[in-house]
Prior knowledge:
By secondary structure, this protein is mainly alpha-helical.
Amino acid sequence: MNVTSAWADALLSLWLTQLVPELAAATAPASASSWTQVWAGMIPTRPQAATSPMGPPPTLAQDFARAASATGLSPQLLEAVARQESGFNPEAQSPAGAVGVMQLMPSTARELGVNAANAAQNISGGAHYLAELLVQFKSLPLALAAYNAGPGAVERYGGVPPYAQTQHYVQDILASLSTESGAVTRA
């Protein structure tokens, strides 16, 4: 499989997973890259909450506002991360074991003192974790890369790791923030 074909397969799987989850398992290519398999693994086992492509469902909007207020991060940033991580799905679970709206690993949730299965606590924990990463790396792209691939990977590579999934993750979030007027890192 050439790079272009693998990239196309990954985009198709991402599109199917996010927009038509019930078709993703049936249509994911057998030769898909590991990146595609990660996204395909995020297909929720229960119906996903109705979401707008631009914002969270009303049931979560206040949780993002509270988390933004508590951390000084913008709600737009937190929503962009949640959109990328889970499509605002509180039931999302990754093959690596990350759970909830902000896709917290159980160990990270424990360190933050939150219940990752509780949507409000998951959002709060993800916001606090991202705020810690921003302090540590002093750069939004590096903090996003660390949120996705882990701080160790960012330190090991001295920047955004050369993982296609992480590079796309950072680019997609930054692009979504640049298209939203007034979307800044800090509230």
